[in-house]
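Per reviewer request, we include the raw input and output of the structure prediction for the construct analysed in the revised manuscript.
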Amino acid sequence: MADLHIEDFYRDVAKIFLTLYATFPRKIILYVEDICGPDQPDEFGLHHPRFEAGFSAMVWLAEHGYINFQDTIRQEALDQAVLSQKAFLLLSSRSRLAAAEPAKPGELPPSVLEHSMTNISQLRAARADGSSITLRRCVSYLLSHPPIGAS
């Protein structure tokens, strides 16, 4: 049986990384709703467990040094969120993972070919692929490997 909450975690981490990389180095308000979809509070106004899990993924990334933020906005957002140096170097470094088919030499200009081999490009490809297996493999790789060249 699949652990759906873990699959959701991998999907949330990918979205968080992609969102913060796209705005780096600007600090932004990172809304849970933008990561995991709209909240569906219960009759008592409590957040849906899926929404709480999205918020918890954001906080977990911060606790483990991947993102920085100034404050929380209730359980709905992180204020002044930005990738940490660790995460920026990880995402922009060359990947050992091949989530996407590599281009053949000569098909692309060298700069485009080099960029296609970065971790952020691999993460984009894994997310676009739509396969939870590919996304899990990619996010798991990112969370378990330091940037190439880092000690």
